[in-house]
Amino acid sequence: MSQIDILVIGAGVMGIGIAQVAAQAGHRVFVFDQRDGAAAQAHTQLVDVLGRLASKGKITTAQAEASLTRLVPVESMREAATARLVVEAIVEKLEPKRALLRELESLFPADAILASNTSSISITALAAGLRNPQRVVGMHFFNPVPLMALVEVVSGLRTSPEVAHTVEALAREWGKVPVHARSTPGFIVNRIARPYYAETLMLLQEQAARPEVLDVLFRAAGFRMGPCELMDLIGHDTNFAVTQSVFEANFFDRRFTPSLVQRELVEGGLLGRKSGRGFYEYPAGAPVVAEPSLPVPDSASGVTVHGRGDVAQRLLSATRLALNGLEPAILPESDWIGIAVGARQLRLTDGRTAALLARESGLTDVAVFDELPVHAGGALAYAAMGSAAWQAEVPAWLQSLGWQPHEVSDAPGLVVARTLSMLVNEAADAVQQGVCSPEAADAAMKLGVNYPAGPFEWLSRLGAPRVIGVLEALDRHYRGERYRVSPGLRRA
Predict the structure, then answer these.
(1) Is the pLDDT at 341 greater than 80, yes or no?
(2) Do domains 190-275 and 303-407 have the same CATH topology?
(3) Percent of the chain with pLDDT over 90
């Protein structure tokens, strides 16, 4: 299908992006929109876009001009009768898309592929009632289309494997990375990504931390944007609508429950950047989170490093530096990871709160810290019954270990650990249900939403026992199905 003609229906942001990519790949691309003049306006916009790319040296002037000659705005879909791939990028609603597909079926021969750029609507539902449902496939691009590499190729129950393979091959020719998904609610990215927003919204509802602190913690863990600033960028109305859609499509599975915090933002018109205010006011954005300078900790009581593995080794190396060459005691056989300073403990979270760990251990001075970050910051919480002296000393210990602590309330699993565990769990469930492969899940989340790693890469790093332990602790704390462990993860 290298040089086939293509029809793109919908001259919005997504449609224009798809048309640009296809034209630059050598296809003649017809652009249609039912709004008068919209297709011609899209062509004018692409003249500017391709001209800027040429002026910046991204493409040559000749390439820009050749691409523009292949872009053909049309006032009727009948003018695109030679197209053998039709990509619809109209409003994200089932009935308008189904009506369009019925019309397309009467206009284009049986060998023409009908692709939908839907981000979450069932491909099976879209194809229902057509004479040739096997030629309907999902081709979900990500915005901005020219820059984002991922394309989710989605098969409904009746989609022909040959059609899916053809679209995958075509996406590769366009320089994209296609991942195959079965048509289930949210496909890959919009399903697996839900916990990234949901856990932060839960922490905000519990007043565990301020939005700007949560964003700092996720950026420290390697994410390009924190969840609060990302939701402000996406638009809370859009993000909330996707969450509602996934929730309803999964028969109100509590894992996907929408947030009261986000609903209130939407009801108040605080939609994020596009309305001037969401979690933050714009154009200012998130306020700066101060990083206090802390004193060097008092190590006279003696220090012991507990546990084994990468985190324990990093703690051991850092503690040696903090002790100016003195050797800490080491207990690799311990059932927890962290450091003890006398009878006081600083533990890597295993999902249990600091208060629960203090009660179970019979100690009062217990603190927990989050996953060791890629960059500087990380979450820290104390057992409320602990001494003021220990609560003052813990941040200094963490800073001396090369880590800038940010105190949050004593929430189970803290911030990053609980979110990573939920992302891994959702991905494991998707694979166990045949939605995608582990490799597709990793590629989709890194390329579609710019995660620093894929869920199965995190699983390999953290280990299934640790992830399951965090989830089970969350489940015991909250009681309900939200944190149930995927059977696929248990088998891991």
Answers:
(1) yes
(2) no
(3) 85
d(CA 359, CA 376): 31
What DSSP letter does each residue of 195-218 carry, written as one string? HHHHHHHHHHHTT-S-HHHHHHHH
Domain 5-183, what fold? Rossmann fold (3.40.50)
Residues 6+ apart with CB under 8 A from 286: 211, 212, 215, 226, 228, 229, 279, 280
Q: What is the maximum alpha-carbon separation in the chain?
A: 83
Hey, which CATH number is domain 190-275, 3.40.220.10, 3.80.30.20, 3.40.50.300, 1.10.1040.50?
1.10.1040.50
Return the percentage of the chain with pLDDT > 70, whole number: 97
Ordered by start, the domain boundaries in the chain are 5-183, 190-275, 303-407
The reply to whether the predicted model has a pTM over 0.70 is yes
- Look at residue 3 in the predicted model and tell me its pLDDT: 86
Is the pLDDT assigned to residue 2 strictly greater than 80?
A: no
Provide the CA 192 distance to its chain's centre, in angstroms: 7
Select from 486, 380, 375 the least CA-distant residue to 433. 486
Q: What is the DSSP pairing of strand 150-155 with strand 136-141? A: antiparallel
Helix (H, G, I), strand (E, B) or coil at 75: coil
Residue 368 Cα distances to 129, 196, 337, 395, 461, angstroms: 56, 21, 10, 11, 20
Q: Return the CATH fold of 303-407.
A: Rossmann fold (3.40.50)
User: What's the sign of the alpha-carbon dihedral 45, 49, 51, 52?
Assistant: positive
State the amino acid at position 196 in one-letter form: Y
Q: Is residue 272's pLDDT more than 60?
A: yes
Alpha carbon of 358 to those of 71, 344, 347, 362: distances in Å?
A: 67, 10, 11, 6
Q: Checking phi first, is residue 186 left (phi over 0); if not, alpha (psi -120 to 50) or beta?
A: left
Angstrom distance (rounded) from CA 307 to CA 154: 44
User: What does the alpha-carbon distance between residue 463 and residue 348 come to, in Å, rounded to a whole number?
Assistant: 14
Q: Which helix (H) or strand (E) holds 51?
A: helix 38-55
Which residues does the annotation mark as catalytic?
A: 119, 140, 152, 190
Provide the angle, in degrees to the nearest 10, between the axes of the packed helices 416-432 and 438-448. Answer: 130
CA 81 to chain centroid: 39
Spatial contact of 152 and 124, defined as CB atoms under 8 Å apart: no
